[in-house]
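re: ur question from earlier - yeah i can do the single chain one, its not a big deal. heres the input i used so u can compare w yours
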Amino acid sequence: MEFSHVGLITDVPQPNETFVPATRVWITDFITHPYHIEWLRFEPDSPVTGPVRTQPHVAYKVKSIELAAAGMPVLIEPFTPIPSLRVGFYLSSDGAVLEFMEYSDSPFVKS
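and the output i got, formated as tokens:
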């Protein structure tokens, strides 16, 4: 498991946002952010509810989402927001929102 980024919720449009149709959320590029922060701005009709929509998350690159998330409550089932990337959101035993990122072309794509 390798740290990737921190996701923070905003309702203010950010420069260079990208729209993710599957979740109806605008996101920024955490790779270009000097502190690896991803800003998330949800459309009013986003299907995302609960802690993923209201709390920050910490994201990790993993070799297998299923192995990394074993036994954790699922917040958002794994989906493919962009080609070669599968992500899922989970709740840790102490209440933290975690995003696990699995790259199909390489499990640990270097940023």
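Residues 66 and 78 are 9 Å apart (CA to CA). not sure if urs matches, ping me
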